[in-house]
Design a protein that fits this description.
Layout lengths: L8 H20 L6 E6 L2 E7 L2 H4 L6 H13 L7 E7 L3 H10 L3 E6 L24 E3 L4 H24 L6
Parallel strand pairs: 3-4, 4-5
Antiparallel strand pairs: 1-2, 1-3
Helix pairs in contact: 1-5, 3-4
Length: 171
């Protein structure tokens, strides 16, 4: 009998859909559209979206907010039996929090080769000298995650172009 956990890719698809719903809320709030959910025993115990601008807090990433909620639900800072689903690869700050909370697994949609810390530019989740390593699954519903991120940045560029072309603007 194999003691390896069974990874249900249908569940990954479903839970990433819930993270995408959170990312859509961030998009509507004109935040960078990243959403996250924390799952324990097949149930969502925390949901969050980026709120950096809303809260004027550089640490208010979806992952950080979701981890804090999950800790409250679990009644412990250790989340060893939980999985984080997030629409974009965690940054170094969020990856550090994942290691410290000892999550079992991180599932993300869109990789970040420049700033990702789950295999993109570095891999803190499996850093050899850290006291905890986390399983990583990437690319889940990647196209949908990418579309949300691209959408907000395209809108911001269009707005900046309109502002630059506005009458009375100093050259």
């Amino acid at each position: 009998m194999d003691d390896e956990p069974i990874i249900d890719l249908q569940s990954d698809h479903y839970f990433m859909g819930e993270a995408l719903r959170q990312a859509a809320r961030a998009y509507e709030a004109e935040e960078v559209p990243v959403g996250a959910v924390v799952v324990r025993a097949g149930r969502i115990i925390a949901r969050a979206f980026n709120q950096v601008e809303l809260l004027k807090d550089a640490t208010a990433h979806a992952e950080m907010l979701a981890l804090t909620q999950a800790e409250q639900v679990a009644g412990d800072w250790r989340l060893t039996d939980c999985t984080l689903y997030v629409t974009k690869e965690p940054c170094p700050m969020c990856a550090g929090a994942v290691v410290h909370t000892r999550l079992a697994r991180v599932v993300f949609g869109l990789g970040d080769p420049k700033g990702g810390a789950a295999g993109g530019s570095l891999n803190l989740l499996q850093w050899p000298t850290l006291n905890h390593h986390c399983e990583i699954t990437s690319g889940v519903r990647e196209a949908e995650c990418r579309a949300l991120i691209r959408g907000i940045f395209a809108e911001q560029r269009a707005k900046n172009d309109r502002d630059a072309d506005a009458p009375g603007r100093a050259e």
